[in-house]
Amino acid sequence: MIRALATVLALIAPAALAGDYGTALPAPISAETCPADPESWTKAALERSLTAQLGLPLVPHPADNPPTEAKIELGRKLFFDRRLSINRTMSCAMCHVPEQGFANWELATAIGVEGRSVKRNAPSVINVGFLTPLFHDGRDPALETQFVAPLVARNEMANPSIGHVVAELNRLPDYRRLFDAAFAAPASLDRIGQAFGAYQRSLTLGNSAFDRWYYGGDETALDAAAQRGFALFSGTAGCASCHVIETDHALFTDQAFHDTGYGRMREERRQNPPASHPVQVAPGVVHQVDFSRIRSVSAPREADLGRYEVTEDPADRWTFRTPGLRNLAVTAPYMHDGALTTLGDVLEFYNAGGAGHPGQDARIRPLGLSPDELADIQAFLMALTSEGLDCLVAEARSHPPDNF
User: Fold this and answer.
1) In this structure, what DSSP letter does residue 86 have?
2) Which in 224, 227, 304, 331 has the greatest CB count within 10 A?
3) pLDDT of amino acid 284
4) Is residue 161 part of a domain?
5) Which DSSP letter does residue 53 get?
6) Are 257 and 307 contacting, i.e. CB atoms less than 8 angstroms apart?
7) Could you give the number of structural domains in the chain?
8) Mind naming one GO cellular-component term on file for this protein (predicted)?
9) Pair (377, 392) in one structural domain
10) Half-sphere exposure of 116 toward its Cβ, with a 13 Å CA cutoff?
């Protein structure tokens, strides 16, 4: 397990430090180093979702949806089943890829059925059980209802209605046993949501090197650079004012919405595109292509006003929920639109004071940190990668995907 994680970090870190957009992707997270028995994966998943892990609080389970092995097994099947899309080609796991930290390394923004464009990055669902509300703009309050939006969105899984999905599941014989085992009842909207919620809350991992050092008292768990980076993160740089660290746990998010200047900056660039755009046609081979040619074969890129699209309150324009920072090393690219490829790019953006728009959060200000100090903060962020990623992959791949 440790060896596999070290391989991932070693492959990612040089690219992140260099800010190199052309660097090859890291090796996928492998399940082969997981010591767990693949036949008893549901037991391990249930235990994990009911146990507080080092650095994390207990997962909050809704009173009306206590987790069970049967619900987790059903939720996993739903998560990987391509039959839940209109043309039976896409599953949730095609945007939230287990071997890529339940994110997607290849795409800045997600792609739906038939290659339809989605304007936002697909975030990792590891530790999603702690988030309230959900999505970059906070438009849904719970995992039990969150699944509806991607299933019916025309640019995602494109089902004509959620009732269509319920009826389809009740027609599929392989689901009858699983719904009976989990609920002693057939598929319904609420039961589908409860199964999705139970499975995703089992994707919970703490026990990073930082956790072992800060919460576990292991002075050897964090190297000197990461310790200096933590001091900067929680002190001079002020990152912890939004990426909160509590005395007994750290979700690294205040679960609130902020205007960092980034959203408005990206909208201005959308409205004023460059004359040409770099297009990589092969590894290391990049051509500058006239942007008008790209536009002629592309759907118009949508504006993204962030939280405003949920509340329609002008004060919420350009605000997005503070993301958690755990497992950043295996969940690139970054920001709500995935436009920043490396952690180095993200740190440079914030070190410069964001975009400098008048309305951005006052805490986003020029920091004046040196390259060495930025490297130390990055070393700290890399130390937020949990042990056990390989076992999440092993559990996810415990059965072939349902892509009939």
Assistant:
1) T
2) 331
3) 86
4) yes
5) P
6) yes
7) 2
8) periplasmic space
9) no
10) 14
151 three-class SS: helix
- 92 in a known ligand binding site: yes
Same domain, 72 and 178: yes
Question: Can you tell me which residue has the tokens 């200096």?
Answer: 228
34 is in an annotated binding site: no
Band (pLDDT 50/70/90 cuts) for residue 19 is very low
Give the DSSP letter of residue 83: G
Distance (Å, rounded) from C-alpha 312 to C-alpha 43? Answer: 44
243 is in an annotated binding site: yes
**What is the end-to-end Cα distance of the chain in Å, rounded?**
33
306: left (phi over 0), alpha (psi -120 to 50) or beta: left
Cα 72 from Cα 80, distance rounded (Å): 13
Q: Is pLDDT of 38 > 80?
A: no
- Token pair, residue 27, equals 């090796």
Categorize the per-residue pLDDT at 75 as very low, low, confident or very high, splitting at 50, 70 and 90. very high
Q: Is 357 marked as binding a ligand?
A: no
239 is in an annotated binding site: yes
What is the Cα–Cα distance from 318 to 299, expressed in whole angstroms? 22
Kindly report, residue by residue over 193-216, the tens digit of the pLDDT. 999 999 999 999 999 999 999 999
What is the C-alpha separation between 23 and 12, in angstroms, rounded?
9
Is 319 domain-assigned?
yes
Beta bridge partners of 289: 277
**18 and 136 assigned to the same domain:** no
Query: Per the annotation, does 95 bind a ligand?
Result: yes
Containing domain of residue 261, as a range? 1-25+225-385
pTM equals: 0.91
Q: Do 125 and 144 lie in a common domain?
A: yes
Q: Around Cβ 376, how many Cβ atoms within 10 Å?
A: 22
- For residues 197 and 234, state if they share a domain: no
Residues 254 and 242 in one domain: yes
Is 217 domain-assigned?
no
Q: What is the mean pLDDT of the chain?
A: 92
The domain spanning residue 121 has which CATH number?
1.10.760.10
Tell me how crowded residue 105 is: count the other CB atoms within 10 A of its CB. 18
Closest CA to 102 of 25, 255, 204: 204
